[in-house]
Amino acid sequence: MQASADSTKMECLWSNWKGQAIDLLYWRDIKQTGIMFGSVLLLLFSLTQFSVVSVIAYLALAALSATISFRIYKSVLQAVQKTDEGHPFKSYLEMEMSLSQEQIQKYTDCLQSYVNSTVKELRRLFLVQDLVDSLKFAVLMWLLTYVGALFNGLTLLIMAVVSMFTLPVVYDKYQAQIDQYLGLVRTHINTVVAKIQAKIPGAKRKAE
């Protein structure tokens, strides 16, 4: 019963995170998405100009400047108005932020599941369990060598973030046209793969 309850909680947590991510990527709340998108881009562009240590230090200094200034402002305001409202960040200081052992175990189990599935898939590809899939993987790696020669990892990360916040909206708006072209591309790829499977000995998939 306990395992079933933990599984239900994990599914609810994942569903909640998934819903929030979808709302962000589809710009359901323009203000919230704009703040998130702008903050991530600003951070990534900062990393292109400064080291990670410098960016972290500048962000910490900016946050400290804001909190210290607000703390002093509230203290002066309370002294002038002769009120005793207490520490301006009292509610945040008293907020529980520690992770329980149960939560840590859930996140660890989830991470372990992803790692295990990734290792199994890589083993399958590198040890050529399916020749066609391994060839596809080899072609992908070959293409990535050209991508790596043109862009560094940070540039690719910036492009990925921009794509994450723009492509879902574009797809939602032009879904019919995009699905039509994707269907044509998928059909062409399947035809080419079928021809390769027919010509390469041992490339045909075993019947299920």
Automatic annotation (TrEMBL):
Q: Which UniProt keywords apply?
A: Endoplasmic reticulum, Membrane, Transmembrane, Transmembrane helix
Query: What is an example of a Pfam family matching this protein?
Result: Reticulon
Compartment list: Endoplasmic reticulum membrane
Question: Transmembrane stretches, by residue range?
Answer: 35-64, 150-171
GO cellular component annotations of the record: endoplasmic reticulum membrane; neuron projection; postsynaptic density
Give GO BP annotations, semicolon-separated.
brain development; endoplasmic reticulum tubular network formation; neuron differentiation
Q: How does it sit in the membrane?
A: Multi-pass membrane protein
List each copy of the Reticulon domain by range.
21-208
**What is known about what this protein does?**
Inhibits amyloid precursor protein processing, probably by blocking BACE1 activity.
Which PANTHER family does the record cross-reference, listed alphabetically? RETICULON-1, RETICULON-LIKE PROTEIN
Kindly provide the name given to this protein in its UniProt entry.
Reticulon
Q: Which gene encodes it?
A: RTN1
